[in-house]
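This section describes the prediction task in plain terms. A model, or a person checking by hand, is given the sequence of a single protein chain and must write out its three-dimensional structure as a string of tokens. No templates, partner chains or ligands are provided. The sample shown here is typical of the held-out split.
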Amino acid sequence: MFRNLLKTIFYSGAVGITFIDYVGYIARVEGQSMQPTLNPLPEEMDYVFLNKLSAKDYTVSRGEIVCLISPKDAQQRIIKRVIGREGDTIHTIGYKEKYVKVPKGHFWIEGDHVDNSLDSNTFGPVPLGLLTSKATCIVWPPSRWRMLSSEPVRQPIKFGKNESLSS
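The expected answer:
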């Protein structure tokens, strides 16, 4: 009996760890930088599913909400929206340059609440290698259950490599 219980715990743990490492996990979204999409009410925090599988190939689409390692603090994860991909020209908001062409292997991210967000307007284009996952849905609170859309809040002023917004 005790031996079977230990086996069950061991196998359940192994499956759980594998799921978290390769498929994804649920994370609490803190702060106001993604308002109104995430955390629209100050007294409630959203929990989202972060899909690691969808980020394995390091490709992003404009408008997607992604989780990445902060360029300022490797211990911190941040959630932002993709505004531009490599080759796109971005009209920045308060960055040291008014226009930035996103270099190869990078992308431009911003919070939906631009006035209250540490994002590419602070630290510039972000290396794709910092991407860890994509936020696909809100799972808590139940009143906010929904899939997250990939609708761009802002658009590049020029798309890279003959691409359109749908790329």
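For orientation: The chain is about 15% helix and 30% strand.
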